[in-house]
């Protein structure tokens, strides 16, 4: 029971990190407006090209998002295998079969949520802001 909660919370935390960090990764044509206190605030003199060409926005965040999705898919596959094993070894015990069904259901739901979050992030980041 605790294993399912750990896997579910791990998948959800990976998805939340992925969706927060993917705000404007793939949109290379976006134009950033100058901050309110341009000369007062730290980083106020940065231009949009400097931000887009920085290591964090051009390399690190897309790398983290891609691997977070791969980890979420891998964990979902592992949990589906575990749920199938639990179902096969239930031997007619309805309580064990129900536990296995819940494990499989949660794994499939987690996989659908991971793919949906990735799709939403890619759609949102592909919108041109010009």
Features:
mainly alpha, 4 helices, single chain
What does this structure look like?
The chain has helices at 2-21, 48-52, 55-88, 94-125. The termini are far apart. It is built from 4 helices and no strands. By secondary structure, the protein is an all-alpha fold. The longest helix has 34 residues, at 55-88. It has one domain (2-21, 53-125).
Number of strands: 0
Find the structural class using helix and strand composition. mainly alpha
> What does the main sheet amount to?
none
Poorly predicted residue ranges: none
Helix-strand pattern: HHHH
How much is the average pLDDT? 74
Tell me the fraction of residues in β-strands, as a range: under 5%
Radius of gyration: 21 Å
Terminal CA distance: 49 Å
Count of runs of 4 or more consecutive helical residues: 4
Percent helix:
over 70%
Number of domains: 1
